[in-house]
Amino acid sequence: MAKIAFIGLGVMGGPIAGHLAKAGHEMTVYNRSIGKAKRWAEAYGGAVAVNPAKAAENADIVISCVGTDDDLSQIALGRDGAFRSMKAGGLFIDHTTVSARIARQLFVEGESRGLHCVDAPVTGGQAGAENGRLSIMCGGSEPAVAAARIVMQAYTTRIVHVGRAGAGQTAKMANQICIAGVVQGVAEALRFAQAAELDLDKVFEAISGGAAQSWQMDNYWKTMAADSFDFGFAVDWMRKDLGLALEEARANGATLPVTALIDQFFADVQAMGGHRQDTSSLVRRITRA
Predict the structure, then answer these.
(1) How far apart are CA 170 and CA 181, in angstroms?
(2) Which residue in the list 87, 172, 222, 240 is annotated as catalytic?
(3) pTM over 0.85
(4) Helix axes 167-195, 235-252, angle to 10 degrees
(5) Helix (H, G, I), strand (E, B) or coil at 10
(6) CA dihedral angle for residue 82, residue 83, residue 87, residue 91, rounded to 10 degrees
(7) pLDDT by residue (tens digit) across 40-57?
């Protein structure tokens, strides 16, 4: 069993860290809100650190799951960041969805300190984190990803080594591009069925077993129909992720016209007050017939 420092105990990080504790690893946790860290430790055991550096100083592995590029930079490279106290040979795994640029920066910074870094964004949502059924796309060296795989299997059903540093983050951008398009399609289909005065339950039964089936349809059709948008990934976070994808596309020359359009649709939902509603709230901006 490893000594693990876990940084960031939000809706994804908290459950992931919980699976590691249940697997028998020795856990030290840090969260910007110390109260959340203390509540996690009461539930799962382990120690609470006052900053990322303290959390990491005796750890074999440091795992982060925070919010943005700036958050990640602060907890890794800041004055009290984990890289300042990690031992040479240590492993840093980041589950945050961030830019490929900062993933590559952490790889270079880590390499200069004798650390092994893996960018490992996850997909599967809050339910996947709670049930230990996440999928992870990894960037980094083969030995680093192999070492990370040993601990990550406690909360995953699929781990794929996509390529070198930053590749995991770029693959996650592709994931979010797919999700955005599918959610918009499901929203339009639902409004179309409503306009035709069809029984929405019957429509779902008819189309969810064929080529139109998707995770978004299975999980959001009924909640969309009920105007309930409190299940899963928030609009604010999706806009952050699509912004990363659009920025990367400008750098690599890809063309993302539909993604850019749906990003603006999410901006409309934000303007309607839907910042923390889940991504299926895209349906709100489509007027009922």
Answers:
(1) 17
(2) 172
(3) yes
(4) 120
(5) coil
(6) 80
(7) 999 999 999 999 999 999
